[in-house]
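Bit of a strange request maybe. I'm writing a small parser for structure token strings and I need a real example to test against, not something I typed by hand. Could someone generate the tokens for this chain?
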Amino acid sequence: MNVKNFVVESIDEMKNKVTWPKYSSLQNSAVLVLVASLIFALVIGLIDLTFENIMTWFYDLF
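Reply from user aminoacidic:
Good idea to test on real output. This should exercise your parser:
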């Protein structure tokens, strides 16, 4: 398989075989990913803050 054949088949596949989402569906997915990422970052931040406070308290005992 040569490079030219690969490029031609790739372009054909992108035009005719790939199902592209509608713009509104794409927006909904992007908002969902953004919200999920923010929630995940907040949870990880809270876990980190809690762990830091526990370790500080523990080390202050000694």
